[in-house]
Amino acid sequence: MTQQEPTDAQKHRSGLSRMAHAFGYSMAGLRAGWGETAFRQEAMAAMAMVPLAFWLGNGWVEVALLAGSAVMVMVVELLNTGIESAIDRFGPEWHELSKRAKDMGSAAVLLSLLVCSGIWIAALWARFG
To answer: How many CB atoms sit inside 10 A of residue 81's CB?
Structure first.
């Protein structure tokens, strides 16, 4: 029988070991997110938008808003996927609270997309309008 690491092993680590393991978990989360179509689409859009932010933005605040809003969409999408995955772990049967949690996660993604769109439209309007 092989010995398994305790589920809370990360809590007992410190220093560089904790940071290295946390980085590994984060990379695993990004790889898992890449398996989701919506996250892939948003990540590919961000790969174009973040460099464009440096060209479009006038000053570091505008660049930060433009690039940050694109990254924010990916963050919210990962959180939404995490919520959906946690709910799906309990089973496929329909439940009102499960639906509500999934709907709220989806609404969070929608709001982040609207904020991102608004920031980019305003910046484009200021530059070209």
So the answer is: 19
